[in-house]
Amino acid sequence: MSNLTSVKSPSTCFSPVTLVTHVKGNLKWLIQIPPIGVMDVDKGKRIFNRLGGGGGGVSTTDKVCYHWRAGRCTRNPCQFRHSELPQPSSSNGMGSKRSHVIQPSDQGNFSGGNFSGGNFSGAGSFSRRKPNTYNRADTQPSRWGDHGQGGAVNGGPRGPGFRPPLKTQDKVCTYWMADKCSYGEGCKFLHQWFVSDSFTMLTQLNGHEKKVISGIAFPTGSDKLYSGSKDGTVRVWDCQTGQCAAVINLGSEVGCVISEGPWVFVGINNCVKAWNTQTNSELSLSGPSGQVYALAVGNEMLLAGTQDGSILVWKFVAATNGFEPAAALQGHSASVVTLVVGANRLYSGSMDNTIRVWELETLQCIYTLTDHTSVVMSVLCWDQFLLSCSLDKTIKVWALTESGKLEVTYTHKEEDGLLALCGMPDAQGKPVLICSCNDNTVRLYDLPSFNERGKIYAKEETRAIQTAPGGLFFTGDGNGDLKVWKWSEQSPAAATIQQ
Fold this sequence. Notes:
By secondary structure, the protein is mainly β. It has a single domain (about 110-499), classed as Methylamine Dehydrogenase, Chain H (7 Propeller), CATH 2.130.10.10. About 5% of the residues lie in helices and about 40% in strands. It is built from four helices and 31 strands. It has helices at about 40-50, 65-70, 175, 490-499; strands at about 1-10, 20-25, 25-35, 110, 195, 200-205, 215, 225-230, 235-240, 245-250, 255-260, 265-275, 280-300, 300-305, 310-315, 320-330, 335-340, 345-350, 355-360, 365-370, 375-380, 385-390, 395-400, 405-415, 420-425, 430-435, 440-445, 450-455, 460-470, 470-475, 480-485. The strands form seven sheets. A six-stranded antiparallel β-sheet has the order 11-12-13-14-15-16, with no helix packed on it. Strands 4-21-22-23-24 form a five-stranded antiparallel β-sheet, with no helix packed on it. The protein has a five-stranded antiparallel β-sheet with strand order 5-28-27-26-25, with no helix packed on it. The termini are far apart. About 40% of the residues are buried. This is C3H1-type domain-containing protein. InterPro entries: WD40/YVTN_repeat-like_dom_sf (IPR015943), WD40_PAC1 (IPR020472), WD40_repeat_CS (IPR019775), WD40_repeat_dom_sf (IPR036322), WD40_rpt (IPR001680), WDR86-like (IPR044715), Znf_CCCH (IPR000571), Znf_CCCH_sf (IPR036855).
């Protein structure tokens, strides 16, 4: 026979709890009974809402609750949605993941961005061609963004550049990035820095003080990698050991870093620094007004895009192994943030939303391209085409028409603004475009199809991308993280056949 005796819970409890003394024979113990309607119901509601069964109260927005997605929202009601938004039927983002074979004639050459050396000379000239006409039954699809249907802009219901909306599993866990995710393998978000079977991350180089890495350079014939940051330093990395071999304190934010032959050029406030890695000589080129955001080399000239909208030109003097001021190009009404040389022309992108085209022989502006609606962040030459990206969420492909004008022949749309472009061949020699977006991702596409090859995640925006021989490439982000990547030697298809 058992006896039950109830006692009051201690006053330190947050809610009334009944402690019941249970006696049976010579044994006695306490049983804690939570009151119905207090603890059980509230806890049940939280679990129910966390699993998506409840609406978290009345949602006042179409935004999904960030904490609910992470399984941590305790608000009821919550002003945000506790359910996923309906998936759209189409997207203007990345291209289809199906394979697309590019013929050798399509491989092309790159020039610009952060390129140096290798097989990417960009020496070819633009060919004049008729502007593509699209969406007509008698017109063959353009090879740009070609997924089996024509179209000058990606993103139709099943047209060029189509990709299905991202699934939850395609998004990286922000708590994992901050080393705070407690769900482990049970987390519904990715716990990895990239998604691809075509390349892999080799290592991460740490040293910049959580400041934006604004430039990366790999001089020809050198075993050193150079990275510049807004922390005011340039770090020199030993490619054999992965260790930092030197730190150059410039006392000013670094706006850009490039290399050409043995030279390394660094743009800072009111100055361009130049180092010859073979002779160990150092030069300071004065003249810029404000920050130097972009640098390029062509026709034995160094060109610098500056904060005041001008482009300064220095000519290389072999006799003194130095540089002399040559000209100041005027025309942009806002800062010049990107430069590239190709086909004996200079292309400059600016915060005034335009691209200007300059003849290198005469240093005269011959075109002003106005198709972008926001800052032109990066320009790149590939084969006979010019590629440009902007904060207006587009990558535009330009080609010369029969009349000699540069016109947009294809527009690739993203869901976020674009920050930088770079290009290189993969392990099989196929051209790949690497572009960073302001959603903290880097996306890789086959050219000219814009089929997706992979995605890289970062804690902050990636502002610097660089390539190196041997299938290596580098990314530097706003957190000061410098990552080293390498293309796989075998294509996924070849590996599958061998297995």
